[in-house]
Design goal:
The complex is a heterodimer of chains A (397) and B (473).
Chain A lengths: L21 H7 L16 H6 L7 H28 L5 H19 L3 H10 L52 E7 L1 H15 L4 E7 L13 H12 L3 E5 L8 E3 L2 E3 L4 H20 L3 E5 L7 H20 L5 E4 L2 H4 L9 E3 L5 E3 L10 H17 L12 E6 L1
Chain B lengths: L5 H16 L4 H17 L6 H18 L4 H38 L17 H17 L7 H9 L1 H4 L7 H9 L9 H32 L6 H32 L17 H5 L4 H15 L6 H18 L4 H26 L9 H23 L3 H13 L9 H12 L5 H12 L3 H18 L13
Helix pairs in contact in B: 1-2, 2-6, 3-4, 3-5, 3-6, 4-5, 6-8, 9-10, 9-17, 9-19, 10-15, 10-16, 10-17, 12-13, 13-14, 14-15
The chains are: A alpha/beta (397), B mainly alpha (473).
Chain lengths: 397, 473
Amino acid sequence: MSDEGGVPYDWSDSGSDHPPATDAASERHGTSGHPASGRGDFGDHAFWERLPFRGVPWRRVLTVGLVCFGLWFLLDAPSLQHSAQVSPLGTRRTVSLDVVGPMAALSRTLGLSSVVGSTDRALGRTPGGGPALAAPIRKPKPKPKPKPLPTTVIGTPTSTTLPPLDYHPTPARPLKVLIVGDSVGLDLGQPLVNTLASYGDVTTFLDGRIDTGLSRPDYFNWPAELQIDLANQQPNLVVVMIGANDPQGLVTPDGSLHFGRPEWDAAYSARVAAFIAEANVAGAHVLWVGMPPMQDPGLDAALRHLNGLVQAQVALAKDGGASYLSSTASLGDKKGAYTAFLPDASGAEVNVRTPDGIHLTPGGGARLAAAVANAMQAQLHVQLVPGAGGTGTGRRT
Amino acid sequence: MLFPTIDFAIFFAVVFTVQWLLVPHAGAWKAFMVVASYVFYAWWDWRFIFLLAASTGIAYVGGRLVHPATGTRRKVTLWVTLALLLGLLGWFKYFGFLAVNIDNVTHALGLGRPLPLVTVTLPIGISFFTFMAISYVMDIYRGVLRPARGIDVTVYLAFFPHLIAGPIVRGTELLPQIRSMRDPDDVHYVEAFWLISAGLAKKVVLSSYLSAHVVDPVFANPHQHSALEVLFAIWGYAVQIYADFSGYTDIAIGLALLMGFRFPVNFKRPYTAIDLQDFWRRWHITLSFWLRDYLYVPLGGNRGTEWRISVNILVTMLLGGLWHGASWTFVLWGAYHGVGQIIGRQRRAVRVARGLPAEPVGRGRVAWARFATFQVVCLGWLFFRSDTLGTAFAMLSRLVVGWGSSPLVTPLALLAIAAGIASQYLPDDWLTRGLKVFADRRPVIQGGILGLVLLAITTLGPQGVAPFIYYRF
């Protein structure tokens, strides 16, 4: 079948779209009333055609655009440099740092970075570092003088010992639960807040941060964030579900550690142990929820490895008040592998995973939340009595 | 590739320059634009460029076959082409939803589970380019468009400014522009830069703020929030989805304008609507008029009995709701708007029969009609935003019994909502005067102004902008 018109690829309009009967046909089919006129969102043709502005050569437009981006790049370079620094290790990060570095230095030398820095400070952010990294959204309550954290070494039990969480919530002494997590943790946290709200005398606070983990405190400092949450909420129990973003290189003062190496395992395990110890020192037990099976075999293997590291640290800290809950029993198939659908109590199939093969649907989150509530009763001996009265707050960024 | 990213800024700077340099060479320009658009699409997931290519191939071949055919053969060719295009959309967008619902019904009836349960990744923009492909073939069938060359159809469907989330540009609008040589000395940059700046501000600052600080926390846990917070979350979502989606199409229209293309307008101050019918003439206009021309009119449109017209409206709005996503909440949202339009139509007929004007007259009545319509639209958004029907009803329940403090109701949240609504009432003259000040400046000064505007947007916006809401549609 040949293209009509005969002249290949010129700008001739010989192949007109509209046969002679266009108007009649479009009227017959109701296609004549396309709304290209009238008062619009400053975007309709009639409005623009009334404006007294004439078109200009494209090279002039390019000049305007380049000046715009050049000025913005110079003024915002320190923030861009920070964004590059906290991005995952790899070629893109290296190239970005090479490109942005000199511009950021120039911006600082000329004092231009103070423009953005002042605005960041006014907004309560880390100057030059983009949005708040571990900075509280609201002013934290006065907190007691922080106790020194125990020195944690991989393979050594933490020095803090808490009694088992054998808790009987009452109106005067409600159970305070802090839930912290990454985006998968948020998928659990939101239904968990609702689940725990169905029990009386339980208060919950959800602090979920997408794209975060323990691997890159330079991007988001979870230990610092936990410190603030512990001081503000003074919880009895911290439910943790963090790890989906963690199979990546660590940046340490001594250099980069690549995922899969023994030294990476040691460093990550130490971070997990320190995280648990931080909660324990503040008097809170930890219930660490492992990552569920993933659809991608590579990510699945990485997170199973990660779960193993976490589980080992929880075992070492057990006397200090940490428990581990595998999410595989709730979200895996009979063999413990990834599945997107699972039957509910009535036998109806429920979609438990989102199409990305990573996150949980609301149904999946509710299923895992029920398992967490069961674990709180079975493992931690918390007496949860059904009844309204639970409250919860939180933030999600 | 997302518009508000460094990646896209670099990509666009290169494409903008090269495409204007290639303007004298039509073939090279079209080939370059196809490659650029496919790179743009592949940035998200390269495997789905084959889907885009398949849709293009089906539309092109279908159009070529429909055009010369007559009688039954013409109809059959059209239906086969539409079935193939809708089949791709159906598999990627609706199969999982249908399978689990059908399986659960058959399981309850003791008939087993006949369909395999799978979750299918939804290719971004599939609903948009599928609808554009359908309009292309149907316009040929109706005789309002002739089949275009393969390369032209490929550019038409893949042209990157509209590829991800519209606007839905018809072949009759874009193909003539693709075939015509654009004037490289007539770039309407004042309008384009305004649309891009305003779109970025709406998306990056307003939509992101409301999403993070008001809407998401409340919709995630409605039981934990007061009635006032629930009310703010619903109003906040109305502003968020407007800022998000109209912001996206503003950017798309502005980018196309910088390359010499005119896209149709997609929003006309929707929250100034005086009833639901008026709302749909102002909201996502390219979709609502697509539904009118390619669904409502073929169903019979305004012809037939009042009962038949009501059925046509309801079916159109139900399918329009389902177009937004495979979920019962979207179906309910579509039904809600369908019933609302039917009631509005009857109400108008009664007013006319009584000798009253069909639409409210007088400032007070118009103001009330606008206020009431906004609240009715907001109630619809409640179902649209809720992940389950349970969440929607929990929100409604909290509106009545949600006593308690309202920490999310802050002056800044109120300001953001008020700004989003008030922006739709600004006089055109204000904008014209402001743009004239900009247009009269030298290029370097103009670049400086835009640089500071961009800095303000990136500084006030959060780190990492959430994907556009309409990507998943």
